[in-house]
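Translate structure to sequence.
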């Protein structure tokens, strides 16, 4: 029976940053890639029983380290992300080194480090990168959806047996999947649909509708981001947009409750705080620093959410 790796905490991530820097920096001007195997052996030598590759993958998500070919890694240069309230300090250096270089106001989030007050930061790196550029997500999901369907290639081959349509409009039913006939009755122009494919699981398509008939079919690529972003864009373009609730919490924190979230935007929340699933339909709850409120609002505004709660 294989053992299960223990959870990886902020101290563990800092240890991996420190080991990676110690192995990669030969002197102040020479940076040499280091293998995950070498880091694994160093962790074992220190009696730290967690997966080196798992920790490196987490740090790669926050852009603190760079993945190279053949299992080699490099720490990334320090750079700043955000600028509206909270600012993420992405860096391969451990937190103690960052505080020595840039001041003690640097805090640790779930994965990333951040500052609440950029002006108080010492030796501030330049430039500051926008979150959307850093994680490569659009600043408007509605505009992204319009461009996507305009550039998509729609074929004419279509079968209606067993197909379900994603209900992005208001209806008495709680289910988000509906019969195709309901979309045709509403005279929708584009809908997301799914049907059973030759392999296990569902295949997803976008249907172009015209006067109650299916005019064209576009099959989606098998990636989660495109699927979820289309769902968000359709909801935002309809009479039933998703809602975001921001609640002010003790200890300078906010609680964020939201629905569907594409992977890059979810990644930003994971970097700053703890995020958990609220339901099997993709709803999330996140506990984040209060200084992230403006950044969070802008992120969800771009997804077409309506904001509620006392932390608006």
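Result:
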């Amino acid at each position: 029976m294989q053992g299960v790796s223990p959870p990886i905490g902020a101290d563990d991530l800092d240890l991996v940053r420190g080991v990676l820097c110690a192995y990669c920096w030969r002197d102040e001007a020479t940076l040499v890639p280091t293998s995950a195997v070498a880091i694994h052996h160093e962790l074992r030598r220190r009696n730290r029983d967690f997966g080196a590759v798992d920790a490196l993958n987490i740090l790669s998500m926050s852009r603190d380290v760079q993945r190279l070919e053949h299992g080699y890694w490099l720490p990334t240069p320090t750079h700043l992300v955000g600028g509206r309230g909270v600012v993420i300090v992405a860096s391969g250096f451990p937190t103690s080194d960052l505080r020595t270089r840039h001041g003690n106001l640097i805090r640790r989030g779930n994965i990333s480090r951040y500052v609440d007050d950029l002006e108080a930061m010492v030796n501030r790196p330049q430039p500051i990168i926008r979150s959307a550029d850093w994680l490569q997500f659009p600043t408007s999901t509605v505009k992204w959806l319009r461009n996507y369907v305009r550039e998509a290639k729609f074929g004419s081959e279509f079968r209606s047996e067993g197909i379900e349509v994603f209900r992005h409009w208001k209806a008495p039913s709680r289910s988000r999947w509906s019969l195709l006939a309901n979309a045709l009755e509403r005279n929708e122009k584009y809908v997301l649909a799914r049907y059973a494919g030759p392999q296990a699981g569902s295949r997803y398509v976008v249907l172009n509708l015209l006067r109650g008939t299916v005019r064209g079919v576009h099959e989606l690529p098998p990636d989660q981001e495109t699927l979820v972003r289309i769902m968000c864009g359709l909801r935002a373009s309809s009479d039933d947009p998703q809602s975001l609730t921001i609640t002010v919490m003790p200890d300078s924190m906010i609680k964020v409750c939201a629905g569907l979230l594409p992977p890059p935007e979810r990644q930003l929340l994971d970097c700053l705080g703890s995020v958990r699933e609220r339901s099997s339909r993709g709803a999330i709850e996140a506990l984040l620093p209060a200084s992230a409120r403006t950044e969070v609002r802008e992120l969800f505004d771009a997804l077409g959410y309506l904001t509620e709660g006392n932390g608006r």
